[in-house]
Q: What sequence folds into this?
């Protein structure tokens, strides 16, 4: 019986994280999905949000956007379009992105433009949240 999870967070560009952890919480399409060792195997799509992982009493967070999570009894593999640790986030850039998204949301555009602006706004807000905590 596994007492730890091997967590990997991977983007098309790089390996963001490889750690042995006690618990992982990922932003699934229908809400947060908590994963402990010996979890039932599954594959799920991710939405933009915060991935949280715990090692002992210490929790850490990573911004993820898009992609999938694959869970096995002792392994969690996150294949994400975007993944950033809080210290990698440029707070000023995220604030500018939020401002641009707010302007797009206020302007009259087609549904596709509106949806893109919503996603950009969501991504910027999560980046600002994580970068502002100073993990």
A:
């Amino acid at each position: 019986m596994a007492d730890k999870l091997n967590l990997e967070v991977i983007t098309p560009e790089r390996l963001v994280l490889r750690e042995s952890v006690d618990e992982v919480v990922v932003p699934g399409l229908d809400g947060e999905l908590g994963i402990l060792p010996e979890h039932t195997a599954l594959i799920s799509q991710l939405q933009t949000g915060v991935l949280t992982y715990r090692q002992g009493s210490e929790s850490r967070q990573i911004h993820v956007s898009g992609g999938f999570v694959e869970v096995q009894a002792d392994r969690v593999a996150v294949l994400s379009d975007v993944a950033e640790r809080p210290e990698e986030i440029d707070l000023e850039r995220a604030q500018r992105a939020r401002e641009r998204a707010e302007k797009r949301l206020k302007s009259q555009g087609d549904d596709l433009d509106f949806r893109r602006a919503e996603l950009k706004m969501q991504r910027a807000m999560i980046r600002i949240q994580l970068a502002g905590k100073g993990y």
